[in-house]
Every structure is written in structure tokens, then in C-alpha cells.
């Protein structure tokens, strides 16, 4: 089922999400709906808070952009109760956007390599290292579980310059081709 994406200004986007116990009711359906919603919205990642659920899960499928970066081939995963256990490498600046903040893209600095521990959709434990674009996607989605947005990582001056656009998003005054949930 395609769900609405919660927009900037929605309180759920600013909460630290709760851990998911094994046997969480309806989790399989939530995961399926998250993938459907992400594909319908032309995204490559989606975190549960973006669909109004304050639980620790995000999904990624970077296949739409794998021709741009070989490391994205077959990069489709479900991350449940993730924990980034190390950040390494150089800080790299890259232009990011977010389904919850439509129409705004900004340069964001993130570490080039991470190690993450997480459970998959079968609650099997994994610990993996990612670098480059996959590491960036994971950090962006992980931030959603921590109640952070990419706009928190830009300069105060840039945030001030974007204030009127962000206020418009908060009021639901955006044009997108996917379902949205207005924060007001």
C-alpha cells in the first residue's frame, strides 16, 4: 500500500525512533508498504518516521542509480534496529535531497566509510562496512531514526536562507507526484 510521506514540520520526524522487537505486529506489511511508497516517490531510501511510524527501521534500494556508481549494484536492504558503530574516512560533501523536504537540495558533509550493525527483515544480525555513496544513503536514513534531517547538517546561514521554503513545506505548499502528509 502506498502511504503518505510526512513532510518537514511533522513532529514524528524529530523524535528518536523506538526499537522494534521480534514479532512486531504487521512488520512484513510495513516493509512492503515502505518499498511501494519509496518506489512510487522515486526515492532510494525511506525511514519509518517518514511514513509516520516512530520505529527503528529504514529501507534502501539504490538500483535506480546503480549506473552512476558500481557500488550501488544490488544495494537493496532492510535495516532494523541499526546502530552505526564507527564512522571513518574523509568527510565528503555531496548534494542531498529528501522526500520529506521536497524541492530542497543542499551540500552535506558526511564520513566516507561506516560500520553498521543491524537486523534484517528476518531479524538476523549483520555487521557490515559501507563506503562511498552506500555509506551516505545509510547515514541519511539512519539520521531519520535519530530525529535528525539533512538540513540540520548545513550551515546556519544556509538554513536561514531556506527558512521561507521550509515554512512553505510545513504548510503543505509543495507540488510533488507522491502522497504527502501535511504537518498541520
List the main descriptive attributes of the protein structure presented here.
single chain; 184 residues; Peptide Deformylase; 5-stranded antiparallel β-sheet; 3 helices; 7 strands; globular
Please render the helix and strand layout as text:
Blueprint: E1 5-6, H1 27-40, E2 45-47, E3 57-61, E4 76-96, E5 106-119, E6 125-131, H2 133-145, H3 156-170, E7 180-181
Parallel strand pairs: 1-7
Antiparallel strand pairs: 2-3, 3-4, 4-5, 5-6
Structure description:
With 184 residues, this protein is an alpha+beta fold. It has one domain (5-181): Peptide deformylase (Peptide Deformylase, Alpha-Beta Complex), CATH 3.90.45. It contains 3 helices and 7 strands. The two termini are 23 Å apart. 34% of the residues are buried.
Would you kindly provide a brief summary of this structure?
Helices cover 23% and strands 29% of the residues. The protein has 184 residues and is α+β, with helices and mostly antiparallel strands. Strands 2-3-4-5-6 form a five-stranded antiparallel sheet, sandwiched between helices. Strands 1-7 form a two-stranded parallel sheet.
Amino acid at each position: 500500500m502506498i502511504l503518505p510521506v510526512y513532510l518537514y514540520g511533522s513532529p514524528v520526524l524529530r523524535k528518536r525512533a523506538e526499537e522494534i522487537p521480534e514479532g512486531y505486529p504487521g512488520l512484513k506489511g510495513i516493509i512492503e508498504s515502505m518499498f511501494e511508497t519509496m518506489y512510487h516517490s522515486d526515492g532510494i531510501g525511506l525511514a519509518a518516521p517518514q511514513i509516520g511510524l516512530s520505529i527503528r527501521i529504514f529501507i534502501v534500494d539504490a538500483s535506480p542509480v546503480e549506473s552512476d556508481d558500481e557500488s550501488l549494484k544490488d544495494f537493496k536492504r532492510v535495516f532494523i534496529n541499526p546502530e552505526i558503530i564507527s564512522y571513518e574516512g574523509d568527510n565528503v560533501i555531496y548534494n542531498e535531497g529528501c522526500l520529506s523536504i521536497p524541492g530542497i537540495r543542499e551540500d552535506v558533509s558526511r564520513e566516507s566509510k561506516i560500520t553498521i550493525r543491524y537486523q534484517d527483515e528476518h531479524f538476523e544480525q549483520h555487521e557490515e562496512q559501507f563506503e562511498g555513496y552506500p555509506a551516505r544513503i545509510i547515514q541519511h536514513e539512519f539520521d531519520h531514526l535519530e530525529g535528525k534531517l539533512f538540513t540540520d547538517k548545513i550551515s546556519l546561514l544556509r538554513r536561514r536562507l531556506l527558512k521561507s521554503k521550509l515554512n512553505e513545506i510545513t504548510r503543505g505548499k509543495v507540488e510533488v507526484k507522491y502522497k504527502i502528509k501535511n504537518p498541520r
